[in-house]
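Usage

Read records sequentially. Each one opens with the input sequence:
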Amino acid sequence: MKERIMNGWNVRRVVYLVVGLIATAQAFYLKEYFLILFGVYFAFMAVMNIGCASGHCAYEPPPRKSITKDEQQ
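and closes with the structure output:
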């Protein structure tokens, strides 16, 4: 687990961590305690390298099937 937390940091993970911490602090300051969960969730994704923070959310469209001239007719 220490390996997962310490290695593989990239810009996306840092952004998720910063946004999560800012959102948590802002929600706590405004006394919107339910919204703290969202900030903690984003920070947790960054620290544990899971979800979109790890880069596994990139959408890759399926490969296009090429149509030959014989199949068009």
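Summary fields computed downstream for this record:
- Helices lie at 2-6, 11-29, 36-48, 69-72.
- The mean pLDDT is 82.
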